[in-house]
Amino acid sequence: xxxxxxxxxxxxxxxxxxxxxxxxxxxxxxxxxxxxxxxxxxxxxxxxxxxxxxxxxxxxxxxxxxxxxxxxxxxxxxxxxxxxxxxxxxxxxxxxxxxxxxxxxxxxxxxxxxxxxxxxxxxxxxxxxxxxxxxxxxxxxxxxxxxxxxxxxxxxxxxxxxxxxxxxxxxxxxxxxxxxxxxxxxxxxxxxxxxxxxxxxxxxxxxxxxxxxxxxxxxxxxxxxxxxxxxxxxxxxxxxxxxxxxxxxxxxxxxxxxxxxxxxxxxxxxxxxxxxxxxxxxxxxxxxxxxxxxxxxxxxxxxxxxxxxxxxxxxxxxxxxxxxxxxxxxxxxxxxxxxxxxxxxxxxxxxxxxxxxxxxxxxxxxxxxxxxxxxxxxxxxxxxxxxxxxxxxxxxxxxxxxxxxxxxxxxxxxxxxxxxxxxxxxxxxxxxxxxxxxxxxxxxxxxxxxxxxxxxxxxxxxxxxxxxxxxxxxxxxxxxxxxxxxxxxxxxxxxxxxxxxxxxxxxxxxxxxxxxxxxxxxxxxxxxxxxxxxxxxxxxxxxxxxxxxxxxxxxxxxxxxxxxxxxxxxxxxxxxxxxxxxxxxxxxxxxxxxxxxxxxxxxxxxxxxxxxxxx
Length: 615
What we know:
Keywords: Oxidoreductase. InterPro entries: Auxin_biosynth/cation_transpt (IPR050982), FAD/NAD-bd_sf (IPR036188), NTF2-like_dom_sf (IPR032710). With about 625 residues, this protein is of the alpha/beta class. The strands form 6 sheets. Strands 1, 2, 3, 4, 5, 6 and 7 form a 7-stranded mixed β-sheet that branches. A 5-stranded parallel β-sheet has the order 10-9-8-14-25, with helices on one face. The model is unreliable at about 1-15 (pLDDT under 50).
């Protein structure tokens, strides 16, 4: 590699004139030497007073962020010998902006190959590590069959009894769950389960994805007809197979459903439709799950070693219990069961809630001439879709990002390289720009009495999503209806229902033929309580959130998403999901953890998450 410079041989006046590439290479050389020598203190000394190391499986067999020199010291003391890292290299030219040097790195561990990202800041006259991202990308000897390693797909030798690809596939399908047991059972066949299934297939880990619907993609097809992705296409690619270049920026739900069905078939994901898990128990002696499945009326018992809940980022629907719900003579439904607006033309509809689903449903009902009232119980953050796409996502996930060489993988890594502890500092200026750009819109919202917020610290939508998974709406038109009074707005909590109305605590009575409860979802461990038992649900604790001690995200600080994509307090039980971006990105790290266990590779987990909240 060119421009190599060892910082230990550079005089201070020379160091100040060194290029970003030379300074980054010198830091990396010192770091590599310290790790090879097992000199933890020398390695720690290369980091700044404020510093963060985020590891995705490569050192910790976990998804873990440590903070400050003490955190880095502890991580290295517990992982350095088993990880045995080596061959640290810069993979691209380092850059510098605003006093921060950024560079992309590669390295190897005892069992794998890894990539990462490093930011350096000057401290005491020398570059010090500020943020370090390390991520395992493949296991040695278990590389995926891609590129030069792709399978031939045909045997160019004739033999009697030779089976075709289709016959082999049919044999595999008929044996699964009967004469051959999967190593992994994935509960949930939406985008998360399918993405993980594709990863496991490429890694040759025997598995099956279970879903209760008739076809892959029905999770989307069955929702209200106006539903579409609010994230742009560049943010939503699945692993291995990107959306084509003519795919719409915001895909309608049925188009997504068709894509997921096609993707499942093309990627050879072992997928059981019309399959519901009725119970699951873990045998501590045999280290095996017993998963009872109702597969289209047939009971099948699966005995995997690993069990993954891939039911999205949410648990069961939160259906409130208001006095009078049993006497209300109209229809009542949670937003997840809302069939669409067609049957409600001319009807009076009250929607309880003011976040994404509430706005979408109100907008679609208005389009079908329903008389719609939105009941806002707490403040909501709203951001205009165009502003979010441009200011919030444009540098990473857009056509301009692609044109500037930011691939999907690079964008994912850049996003992952920002520690959650300081991510809000990067988000706040972006939302300040959006507030200025769309000032007239927010003035009109305020004028009609809509209670709006920018998050507890002004950091906007992404931090709300990561902290609590709720409390926001990406405006694709429905908020304008609220501004114009076309969707009526009421405020307050529900006191009770009568035979034909919703009554708020202040006495406001809202006539209703239909009440839609857009009241969100519980934690994913609610599914664990239903399928396994409450004891196990409490053992793993709350799923999602960072412990930021902000609204609906109680402390203490976790540093990572609770329980997602990593080992939990229940052995061999995992959670996978999130939006399409997270399903794509984190499915790799979950799949590698499962593959390592399947192959018997030692996985010394560092920093297993403690449980602070059980609900």
